[in-house]
Task: structure prediction
Amino acid sequence: MKSIMKIQRRALSALCCVALALAALGGCGSSAEGGNSAELESLQAQLEDMQRELDELKGSQTASEGVPAANANAKSAESTPTPQLNPTNANGNFREAHGALKVVNGRLLDQNDEPVRLYGMSTHGLSWYPQYVTEETFRSLRDEWGINCVRLALYTAENGGYCTDGDQSMLRNHILNGVNHATNLGMYVIVDWHILSEQDPNVYKEQAKEFFDWVSSSYGGYTNVIYEICNEPNGYATWDSVKSYAEEVIPVIRANDPDALILVGTPTWSQDIDKALADPLSFDNVLYTLHFYAATHKDELRSRLKKCANAGLPVFISEFGTCDASGNGGNDFAQTEEWMKLAEDYNISTVAWNLSNKNETSGVFANGCEKLSGWSDADLKESGVWLKNYFGGLSR
Ligand code: IDC
Result:
């Protein structure tokens, strides 16, 4: 701020000089001497330089002040640098180029009615690996990995879970930071109510309604916030129970964010999208999630996806792994490639699990690697190298 005032003062005094010089030139009629006009030109050049400096300073100021408060008007977070490595982003800021996304005839379209595909990375549980919810990390993922979407995984029932013994205000803070960083960087962001061990989302339905009321009232004006209302119903959870949960939670979100994109998990760890096809929800802008782990889920689940997508079901792969369903074990890159080919054919968005240095195959950072950005291949596990190359367009 101080330097802006300094430049403004310098500009003012230069302006005075220009005025004085003009007055002097006026006195000499139209036959100004070369010396005087050279002085005038030099003053004008100085002024132009100062204007440039001022513009640059204002630009950096906007960027560094661009993190909006949770309930700030969405418009305050507009200016962001151009992503470098996003194959679908020829227009600069990805979020601004694609705007509010919508589901039309089972397909995900952008504000220009063009098909759009999100390439995402999911955090690990925000209670355990919050260090990756930084602008630095998201920027590196965007510019070096080609990521245009981050998923914020808020576990509900585990140790440190939002509905068990987790620190709710700290967890909410991670959500706010994550959404703000993604917004500033021109990325989409999925707020994932990460149900898992409780099996049925109805177990914490009241908490879910309260949570999504808070998120959607904070970010109702944002076009880049996507709500994932239940990660993976499993065990005894049927589609009927998931559906009735969705029918209560979705109107809470819609009251604050009428056109929001909403992702709904399906039974059997988000594999039973056929159940949703048989009895879909009646809301607009809803996609059903399918999750796969390439070393476990193969042709059979891919056939299901093909069948459902051909029948017009909107599907979103909000979590996948290159390894087996435990998040560990060996990678199966050949199967992952099969999955990615299919996702490309149907233009289905894909978000990979997970941003952590945990000692498990799916944690993309090398065990012990503490870097938060600018990872070399040696800083990554094999899954990380593969994902970086795939999302970055090197293996597509
Ligand atoms: C796993 C994590 C692991 C953590 C466990 C908690 O990778 O570190 O201890 O959850 O229960 C899912 C889930 C996702 C799992 C992942 C791998 O959505 O939470 O993460 N997985 O098991 N569905 C299929 C696989």
